[in-house]
What does this fold into?
Amino acid sequence: MKVTKQIETILEASTCREQLEETFEWLELLLDQYKIQPDELQLTMLLNHVDAMLVRSLNSEEMMRVDPQLFAEVSPEALQISTEVVQKIGNLSEAEKFILSIHFEAARINTNK
It folds into this structure.
């Protein structure tokens, strides 16, 4: 995936830049494996979210709980990808996978158009 100005800005501003770059590279491979190609905006939003997740993980912060039923229409594929990301980062609440799955679902739908 192309590193845009917005992505470079997020990487430069990150308090955990090394981990974010590593996770970004891993995410590129994971999305390629699932044949999902987020557009520039989707990728920027995803990277920004992952950066916030890394901060929450490092600081042992938890998100608010979410009702999994609100995500019933998210594809199993998007939930699987988000589960893998949450597991890779570690020290995150289960709510993270549901919120994160929206990024993958939008990119999946966009890719399959």
In short: The chain has a mean pLDDT of 94. The chain has one domain: 5-111.
